[in-house]
Amino acid sequence: MIDPSDRQIEAASAELRAGNLVAMPTETVYGLAANAWDETAVSKIFEAKGRPATNPLIVHIYDWTFLDQCAEVPLATEIDQAMKQLDAFWPGPLTLILPKSQRISSLVTAGRETVAVRVPRHPVARKLLKSCNFPVAAPSANRSTAVSPTTAQHVDDELGEQVAVILDGGPSELGLESTILDLTESPPRILRHGGVTAESLAKALHLSVDVLTRGTDKEVETAPSGHRAPGQMKVHYSPRTPVRLKSDWIPVADERAGWIRFHVDTSAEGPEASIVRILSNHGDLKEIARRLFATLRELDQLDLDLIVIDTCEEEGMGRAIMDRIRRASARRDV
Ligand code: TXA
Ligand code: MG
Asked: Which atom of ligand 1 is nearest to the CA of 120?
C-alpha cells in the first residue's frame, strides 16, 4: 500500500475544511469526499459527478463516537440491537441506513429521513477522517453511471480537474463498493451487495439470506418507490463499450471483442479475441472482485466493439460481482 505522508493528509483535510473536494482511498473503491456539514461543498460533489440530486450520499465517519451527529438511534430498539450484532463489521465495507439526525442536511440524504453511514477501514481514509472533526460525505469518485475507480490514477483521469487533492492509497483492496444494509426496515434488508457477504450478515443478525436479500436484485425502475437504494439504477458501472455477459453472447463475424475471464479454463469457448484478461487463475471471487472494475476500464480504452464477460455463481462475493456486471451489461436503450 502507498502511504501518503502526514503532511499530505493534513493538506487534504485543510482542503475539506475549506469546502473543497478530496479523493480518498477506501478499502472498497475511491471516494469523492466533502465536509458533510458544508452544503456548498456537498453540492460540488453532485456537480463534479453529474449526479442527480435525488441520489443520496454515504456519510463516512471515523468511529462510533461520530454516529450521534449523523443518525438517531433510540436505545433498546430493534435498530440498536441490530447495530450491536453488527459491531464486528465496523470499520469495514458495510454501510448502514439509519434514521437521520436533524443536523444532516437533506442535500446529503436527497430529502430522505434516513442517512447512509459507513466507517471505512483503509488506513489512509482513517487518518483523514481522524484529522477532520466532521463527517465526510463521499460517493464513489467516478462520473455518474460510470465504473467506480480503484486507483488514484482512475480518479485523476476522470475527475482530476474537480478535486483539490487526490490521496493515493494504492489499488483498492476489495475493488467493489460496500454492502448497503437498511436497518430502518424490519427485518433489515440488503439494498446493495458489496464487500460484506449476505451470508455473513445473515449469520450475525440470525436471519436467513432470503429474508435479508428480499427484492435486492430487482431494478429500481420496476420496484415500488420508497425504500430501495435510489442509486441502484439498471444501467450503472458502465463503460462506453457495450458489455455482454458470456452466457448471452452470440458470435458475430468481424466483431472486435475483448473477453474478461474469471479463471483459466481451456475448454471454454468464447470470442476469438486476442484481447483476453484472466482475472484469477482459479476463479477466486475476491481476486475477481478486486480486478473487475480496473479491467473494464482498461478494455474500454481499446476501442473494441464489445466486451464479453464471464459469469459466476451468486453466492458470497459472487452476488456483488454478478450485480455489477449485470448493470454494466444493461442496455442503455431499455
Ligand atoms: O464502498 C462504498 O460504499 C463507496 C466508498 C467511497 O465508501 N461509496 C459508494 O457511494 O459506493 P455511492 O454514492 O457511489 O453509492 C452509494 C449508494 C447509492 O446507491 C445511494 O443511492 C445509496 O448508497 N444511498 C445513500 N443514502 C441512502 C439512503 N438514505 N437510503 C437508501 N440508499 C442510500
Ligand atoms: Mg457509485
From this structure: 7
